[in-house]
């Protein structure tokens, strides 16, 4: 015999059981990106028009490399989760599932490409002696 009522079993679950977690993740990542992206844009702005050696030496510095990696990972996860919610709201059925897979795949391809390029710049920067 179950002593839990239907309401007691449902409290805190939401429709899918992860709505609160998703909301907090999106809020926290948005705040983090709001602080990181302007800093990163300033750094990138200072390297615009510079030669390749200057750009590589800038992006091989630990702070810039870590900041770029964090923006790539957090930003693309934020993008993937945001598009997933949009797709769930407006696209249904097989098309919705396919679109979710495509958006998550796009996010991970962009993330991997960014991290590869960043790793290559850091490696070249180490070889150059920076």
From TrEMBL:
Coiled coil location: none
TM ranges: 23-43, 55-76, 106-128
Keywords: Heme, Iron, Membrane, Metal-binding, Transmembrane, Transmembrane helix
Keyword Phosphoprotein: no
GO molecular function: metal ion binding
Signal peptide: none
Location (main, coarse): membrane
Pfam families reported in the protein's UniProt record: Sdh_cyt
GO cellular component: membrane
Functional summary from the UniProt entry: Membrane-anchoring subunit of succinate dehydrogenase (SDH).
Name of the protein this chain belongs to: Succinate dehydrogenase, hydrophobic membrane anchor protein
């Amino acid at each position: 015999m179950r002593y839990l009522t239907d309401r007691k079993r449902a409290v805190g679950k939401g429709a899918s059981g992860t709505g609160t977690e998703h909301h907090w993740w999106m809020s926290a990542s948005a705040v983090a990106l709001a602080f990181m992206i302007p800093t990163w844009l300033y750094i990138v702005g200072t390297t615009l028009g510079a030669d390749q050696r200057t750009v590589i030496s800038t992006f091989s510095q630990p702070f810039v490399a870590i900041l770029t990696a964090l923006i790539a990972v957090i930003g693309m996860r934020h993008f993937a989760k945001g598009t997933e919610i949009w797709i769930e709201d407006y696209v249904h059925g097989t098309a919705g599932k396919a679109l979710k897979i495509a958006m998550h795949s796009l996010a991970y391809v962009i993330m991997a490409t960014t991290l590869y390029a960043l790793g290559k710049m850091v490696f070249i920067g180490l070889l150059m002696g920076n």
